[in-house]
Design goal:
Elements (H helix, E strand, L loop, with lengths): L19 E4 L2 E7 L7 E7 L4 E6 L4 E12 L2 E4 L3 E4 L4 E5 L4 E7 L4 E2 L7
């Protein structure tokens, strides 16, 4: 991993980076892409109506919502909200209006439900 900086992400600087397909309804801009069980940092852009099926966190996950609203079974997280998902927690994620998040995870999640693209 090498040092980098991304200025203005909170003020909308994420609009200036390129995103690539990640999963149905979600695109990604990799800031640091780990391999295997290595940590990763990314920007995720969720299209309106996008969902991530129920999954378990085998490592710590930290999310900063930059735009829109991301939701899970515990509530709705608006821009500016910092969310921590500790090791062993489970949830599903969705957004009605779309959202962009800065996310860091120690290890990739384990999907527990079958994904059903719309």
């Amino acid at each position: 991993m090498h040092e980098r900086s991304y200025s203005g992400l909170v003020q909308g600087g994420w609009r200036d980076v390129d995103f690539e397909p990640f999963r149905h309804g979600v695109t990604v801009h990799w800031i640091e892409k780990g391999t295997g069980d290595e940590p990763s940092i990314a920007l995720l852009k969720y299209m309106p109506g996008a969902r991530v099926p129920r999954h378990r966190h085998p490592g710590l996950e930290a999310i900063l919502v930059l735009d829109g609203i991301q939701s899970d079974e515990r509530g709705d997280y608006r821009a500016g909200t910092f969310v921590i998902n500790p090791v062993g927690t489970e949830h599903s994620v969705w957004t009605d209006m779309g959202c962009v998040v800065l996310i860091q995870w120690d290890r990739p999640v384990i999907i527990l439900e079958q994904e059903h693209p719309h």
